[in-house]
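[stage:ingest] chain + small molecule (S-adenosylmethionine)
[stage:ingest] validated
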Amino acid sequence: MSSLTRIVPWSQQLIGEVLRPGVLAVDLTAGTGRDTLALARAVGAEGQVVAFDVQSAAIEQTSALLKSHGFAVHAWPAEQVLPVRAGVFLIQACHSAVGRVLQSPATAIMANLGYLPGGDPLLITRPASTLQAVQASLGLLAPGGRLAVTVYPAHPGGEEEGALVNTLFSHLPSDRWQVLSLRAANISRAPYLLVAERLI
Ligand SMILES: C[S@@+](CC[C@H](N)C(=O)[O-])C[C@H]1O[C@@H](n2cnc3c(N)ncnc32)[C@H](O)[C@@H]1O
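[stage:predict] done
[stage:export] tokens:
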């Protein structure tokens, strides 16, 4: 696939545009840690990054990747509210806990749905918990903040999952939200990106 239709770099670019040193950024699906690393680089040492994943393998990969790039990484329990504190915090739990764990406004939140590349395809994001996480994330965004969701309609349940997020985003009032849908128009069931920006 050419770079035009590769969705993940678009997601990182659109999220990177709103990030600056010192802010809070959230990765709802840590996976291999590549998105978490991009967030950590953008917010810098004074910023805070919080990354969720249900799988220990993903948390371990993310931790190793961040450490190899010089970031200190902390494990955080999903049962406790996370205060504003600089650093990278990894939470091994379902991302539907995001609204409970975080109570401070976030500048950027990303969710790259689906399963861990090279991992167990049964450990996949699910429509109901994804919708819960995305709804809570909209409520956490600071003015000017963005929430980017990458959807994989070819994965089992991916079509339904994307449709739920799309419906939610489509109904956001346009005086307070801008929503972008970015997808390859001529590739059937290609991954696509939905981005919501809170205006005020
Ligand atoms: C496509 S991968 C994420 C890719 C990742 N952002 C990266 O940079 O490599 C999707 C991840 O979502 C995780 N996941 C599945 N269900 C989840 C849930 N309910 N809450 C949090 N993470 C979940 C999977 O374990 C998998 O690691």
